[in-house]
């Protein structure tokens, strides 16, 4: 009997976003998480990055279900884009179900509603037993992270048991009082764990990660000194962080306002589930801000990553109709920059500083951000608790995976007990044996968030060339019978300047004539001619100006 179990990450290994993992047993696939990534400044006109689901599209009928670990965008954000693709195939089983903890399912369902997707995530309480999806038995284990109701997963199969330890830290004094279910972790260990798939993002940090509760006194100190608006920007799903600031604001009788669609949605979900409590009369709308003095306000503002058109960016650029920065204001960046967003965030911080407001961010103090990811001691404690036969780090960069491996060696694990892999690399478990399997093709899928349409990689390349080198349009009239150029080419240049456009035109004219005359009587494919003109123009421009603009050849047959 074939009892092999395959683990295939199609996002989330080698980077910290697009988390999506496949567990495959015989003809069944269980999906864990469905996250997205964020475009950096080089990805022009792109908002989001999605995992590549090409493999899933070819094996849709094998999918028995999906489970979600927690409510952060890099774990649930792709749902409204990927679910319709899987559903449209017509091969997805009618029994296909998605499970998530109460807050996770609520946040995911809000996102699905927003995009008009009809499928819903089913709520699972931590008191419930195993969820059975085909031959997979999945238990949800509460852990502490920077969002409530975060979970690790104990996945049992006939071919082995796996502990999916995504995004955790051991916070013994969590702000929401929801502590890690250590007894469930130990029970899973007693049943035997073939492999621990573990968060490794904090593997380079020493000690244990600080408790979220440590931020309360810091908010209290800074807010007591603030004589203007107290503005906090962080991830919208960081409910624990929001609650810390809310408690302080209420003690100082500051009215609380949520600014930005994502924050308002997350707040509404958290309040409905009882994870956020605001006293009667203390919450106001953006339109009501004008009715209060600045020193009586706490504003939570979306846009901590410097996103274009976010509420934070519009406020800083003086484009928000209801909120203006003053020198008495304090702006707290209560989150770290996502890799790739540093330039946008630093630009935002710089502009705030120029306006005279006090701005607090992680490079000058760690007082207002603690990681939701475990540091080295947290990670080693998880290994000691679960006692797995094998280890596989996920959710970090390659160097963090290497650092994790060194930590495991301190606990007696050997190189042969650990696997450092990349997205798309299958790992096959057969009893106590483990080996690398197929390499599944994976790529970044670029998406325009407004249209929801994929942006092809060649479009990105063209945009990159346009932004760096400009565009040169070469219009050439050619006699369709002789193949000869009739007039001097018209050259239109945008995005860079030359000292002598006529010189550039004559260079291109000379090269074109020479090439076309050498092919006289043999040129009948005008697509080929356009490509030829483009290549000649590119070479001539680079040789003369050391520039590589986007060249657009236009052939007019006469």
Structural descriptors:
Ubiquitin-like (UB roll); 558 residues; 15 helices; single chain; Metallo-beta-lactamase, Chain A
Give the full name of the CATH homologous superfamily of the largest domain.
Answer: Ribonuclease Z/Hydroxyacylglutathione hydrolase-like
Kindly report the average pLDDT value. 88
Count of folded domains:
3
Roughly how many Å apart are the termini? 72 Å
CATH architecture of the largest domain: 4-Layer Sandwich
**What's the CATH first level of the largest domain?**
Alpha Beta
User: What is the total tally of β strands?
Assistant: 27
Structure description:
This protein is of the alpha/beta class and 558 residues long. It has three domains: 5-208 and 371-454, 4-Layer Sandwich (Metallo-beta-lactamase, Chain A), CATH 3.60.15; 212-360, 3-Layer(aba) Sandwich (Rossmann fold); 456-557, Ubiquitin-like (UB roll). It is 31% helix and 23% strand. It is built from 15 helices and 27 strands. The strands form five sheets. An eight-stranded mixed sheet has the order 8-7-6-3-2-1-21-22. A six-stranded mixed sheet has the order 9-10-11-12-13-20, covered by helices on one side. Strands 16-15-17-14-18-19 form a six-stranded parallel sheet, with helices on both faces. Helix 4 packs across helix 8, helix 6 (215-225) crosses helix 7 and helix 14 (501-518) packs across helix 15 (526-545). It starts with a strand and ends with a strand. The mean pLDDT is 88.
